[in-house]
Amino acid sequence: MSVHRRLVLVLGDQLSPGLSSLDYSDPETDVVLMAEVREEATYVPHHRKKIALIFSAMRHFRDRLRADRRDVRYTAYDDPDNTGSLAGEVARLAAEVAPDEIVVTEPGEWRLMQEMLGWERRFGIPVRILNDERFLCSRQDFAGWAEGRKQLRMEHFYRDMRRRTGLLMDGDDPAGGRWNFDQENRKPPKEGLDLPERRWFAPDAITEEVLALVAREFPDGFGDLEDFRFAVTAEQAEATLDHFIADCLPNFGDYQDAMIAGERFMFHSLLSVSINVGLLDPLEVCRRAENVYEDGNAPLNAVEGFIRQIIGWREYVRGVYWLKMPDYRDMNALDQDAPLPGFYWTGDTKLNCVRHAVEQTRDEAYAHHIQRLMITGNLAMLLGVRPAEIHEWYLAVYADAFEWVELPNTLGMSQFADGGILGSKPYAAGGNYISRMSDYCAGCAFDVKQKTGPDACPFNYLYWDFMDRKRSHLEGNHRLGRVYSTWDRMDGARKAEIRRDALEFRRSPV
Ligand code: FAD
Ligand code: DLZ
Ligand code: SF4
To answer: What is the pLDDT of residues 439-469, one digit of tens each?
Structure first.
């Protein structure tokens, strides 16, 4: 039987004109459904700027599709007929247009996929779920790559992706003779570093309307709505990319891990949100970066480092997510069970580095990778926070957070809660690391040089206390052999001080 009319559902992170569901459908006969719904906007307490960004980008994309003569049915959040769920909105439109088929590009999150797999039975209409071609490695290809491997090392996956895409390749060899230039990418911040003015976008009428809606509907939600300045269209996202390529990429590698108080963006691209919601194509972004290297306008360590994050890490964490869900979400390999300190939501803490990271998160719905990994993530792990709780925090507070990318980064990379699927050892560090890579310690109430006592940097004693408390879980890890021999050489009085100070801080974190 030939299909006469399809209902094509486009989700809030599927804002790409070349999306497989749109590509598959017929603009002459099919209807496109986009819906702002309570279920998606509240399954975690999303940052209010994140909700505003998604609704505004959805509305701009709706207008773009309509300009291409698509029949788009759009449900606004405050539409009195809004059922509050994607399934409810599909059912409502299906009752009106009686489609022969429902078409959707696979969702990014497992929970939604499970729901959609039940739609055919629920609605009595065939449901076609298409691959998301915006990823370079399909779920099936990743499963094939992973099969039979003892360890799923990102570096091996990344080399395959370089070969497959041809990015930064000289025939069969990597450009510059090495696959990875990370060793050159760990420079501390230098004094007087000249940081570029970032490219931002003032809200237009659509965004203003959405901001008023979000202020009204989510009055007590986390995160400031003031100074909204994200890209909400493909054109604006392109302009952010142009600016990054010209003004930031040459320094991206050198200062990738550096942090400066008050400098919230360093040389990072700020492109994750635009890529994740579909305003930019990841392969195009990488090709643009590659061209800059080939033209001699950015060094290889910067361009390789940047491309690795996208065709390596980004694709790899998505592969791990789909391979390991649903069990992955509940993993807690280190048996951590403490609650998340309240200051993760308020920024009200004496730890200067954490205060900066949380305050900027509240203001911008953004923190760069090392802030997420080595400040907030590191502290949560050292304190023994329940992985599910810190996972919910990361999923809520960052504009770029969708479970397929956030969960492996949080549970795997930052909390070591997957027991080493993603990383070979915990990213645990004392104050020394933070002091070397940032200038936060100069403005802190604590002294990074002191190891114990009331003025000592809490990261210092919490680090050793964590290693001590989790010894039975970690001492078999050969990368931690030196850590445990150092601990074993410490005298008993020192160990007692560490345990005492850490216990006090863990009981009432300040
Ligand atoms: P840049 O530093 O400019 O990097 C360039 C691009 O590479 C990013 O835009 C992003 O697309 C990609 N990228 C870089 N690192 C990673 C990574 N580890 N995994 C996947 N892609 C990567 N990233 C998200 O997109 N969403 C999340 O919810 C998210 N949660 C995280 C949670 C934790 C605990 C940690 C440690 C990292 C998380 N990341 C997440 C990865 C990374 O921190 C962000 O992608 C990055 O900070 C976004 O800022 P940027 O665009 O300026 O990145
Ligand atoms: C994150 C989000 C939010 C806040 N709101 C919506 C929405 O109202 N409608 C929608 O289609 N999508 C929204 N999204 C994005 C979805 O949560 C996302 O598509 C799934 O989590 C799959 O990645
Ligand atoms: Fe952070 Fe410790 Fe430095 Fe304070 S002294 S900023 S708590 S690392």
So the answer is: 999 999 999 999 999 999 999 999 999 999 9
Q: Is 353 in the pocket of ligand 3 (CB under 6 A)?
A: yes
CATH for 139-202+232-323 is: 1.25.40.80
In the chain, CATH 3.40.50.620 covers: 6-130
Nearest C-alpha neighbor of 371 from the set 233, 223, 263 = 263
**CATH code 1.10.579.10 region(s) in the chain:** 343-507
Predicted pLDDT at 192: 80
Residue closest by Cα to atom 3 of ligand 3: 441
Query: From ligand 1's centre to the CA of 498, what distance in Å?
Result: 34
* H-helix or E-strand spanning residue 305: helix 300-307
CATH 3.40.50.1450 fits 6-130, yes or no: no
CB 76 within 8 A of CB 35: no
Taking a C-beta distance cutoff of 8 angstroms, is the pair 49, 225 a contact? yes
The shares of helix, strand and coil residues in the chain, as percent rounded to the nearest 5, are 55, 5, 40
In this prediction, residue 127 has a pLDDT band, given cuts at 50, 70 and 90, of very high
Tokens of 60: 């701009």
Q: Is 351 close to ligand 3, i.e. is its CB under 6 Å away?
A: yes
Closest residue to atom 50 of ligand 1, CA basis: 270
Q: Whose CA is nearest to atom 18 of ligand 1?
A: 313
Name the class of domain 343-507: mainly alpha
Kindly report whether the global pTM for this prediction surpasses the value 0.70: yes
